[in-house]
Amino acid sequence: xxxxxxxxxxxxxxxxxxxxxxxxxxxxxxxxxxxxxxxxxxxxxxxxxxxxxxxxxxxxxxxxxxxxxxxxxxxxxxxxxxxxxxxxxxxxxxxxxxxxxxxxxxxxxxxxxxxxxxxxxxxxxxxxxxxxxxxxxxxxxxxxxxxxxxxxxxxxxxxxxxxxxxxxxxxxxxxxxxxxxxxxxxxxxxxxxxxxxxxxxxxxxxxxxxxxxxxxxxxxxxxxxxxxxxxxxxxxxxxxxxxxxxxxxxxxxxxxxxxxxxxxxxxxxxxxxxxxxxxxxxxxxxxxxxxxxxxxxxxxxxxxxxxxxxxxxxxxxxxxxxxxx
Length: 325
Ligand SMILES: NC(=O)c1ccc[n+]([C@@H]2O[C@H](COP(=O)([O-])OP(=O)(O)OC[C@H]3O[C@@H](n4cnc5c(N)ncnc54)[C@H](OP(=O)(O)O)[C@@H]3O)[C@@H](O)[C@H]2O)c1
Fold this sequence. Notes:
Layout: E1 10-14, H1 19-30, E2 34-39, E3 57-61, H2 67-73, E4 79-82, H3 95-113, E5 116-120, H4 132-147, E6 152-156, E7 159-160, H5 167-176, E8 179-183, E9 189-190, E10 193-194, H6 195-207, E11 214-218, E12 224-225, H7 226-237, E13 242-246, H8 248-258, H9 268-274, H10 282-286, H11 301-309
Parallel strand pairs: 1-2, 1-4, 2-3, 4-5, 5-6, 6-11, 7-10, 8-13
Antiparallel strand pairs: 9-12
Helix pairs in contact: 1-6, 3-4, 5-7, 7-11
Bound molecules: NADP nicotinamide-adenine-dinucleotide phosphate.
NADP nicotinamide-adenine-dinucleotide phosphate binds next to helix 1.
């Protein structure tokens, strides 16, 4: 009797070398999937291979601005996950070319090959927003659903985890600066969500256990203002800092200068996003289109932040337990 061994499904993860992508890649690899990671610089994606068995994770060059590279990345794939996103524009990396047309191009190639997909969008994605980022994310998700009606759209709030660029960035700033800025008074509300919870939702989409053609709002267990996020971070790194309110007009002036730098700390487009609360919608809660609705219990900041922010404490991992200046 012949023994038939089926080959594990192949998932192409666009942007799999980034912060969210690498956690999705790891979660998929743990489930036994073969994973192809498509990004512009596969030579810089060597950190991914140890997340799976030998040969299980393969980086490949792809740029969403060139359709033929998308076609090549999806050759023989069973599923696609798009985690490509940019926070600011630079050179030919425009919000429209990467987040709208890039997502659309992936979806059209998926449709042509009978592949389904998940699109990582954002809670802030909004076709009517004044922010170019938010509008391009909304356009990307709409184009994906048009081409692949059974696609899954995941819309996370701000995402935290070991390599995040939010808590790490402000904790780094707190090491040197006696003050931390609270833009617009720090009143904007967020629902920080743990990166592994987002990755679990994406992996379940690849498993086929999420309803297709549906958008899920992914938030953590707590809604916190920007000020409260900073207070939580300072508590964990055991430092006292002044939280100074920066009025919107002054923030806009600062951003217009900062955005001239290569990797800007703040842009005027980000200020437009910061002006709007970033929390799970009432409709998503009512309809169960949330992590809890998927049966995933979201991890709290309190449980996770100390596991990676300890390096910003004065005594590093040798905690003193007391807040220092
Ligand atoms: N982080 C958050 O708090 C957050 C919150 C809500 C939603 N999201 C969404 O989650 C997704 C992932 O975010 P992230 O924080 O993981 O971003 P990230 O760390 O900056 O990763 C972005 C990834 O996209 C790749 N990439 C960039 N431009 C590309 C292009 N033209 N073609 C192909 N690949 C390209 C990058 O690799 P190369 O540079 O090598 O190409 C990298 O792998 C994004 O869609 C973002 O909008 C993030």
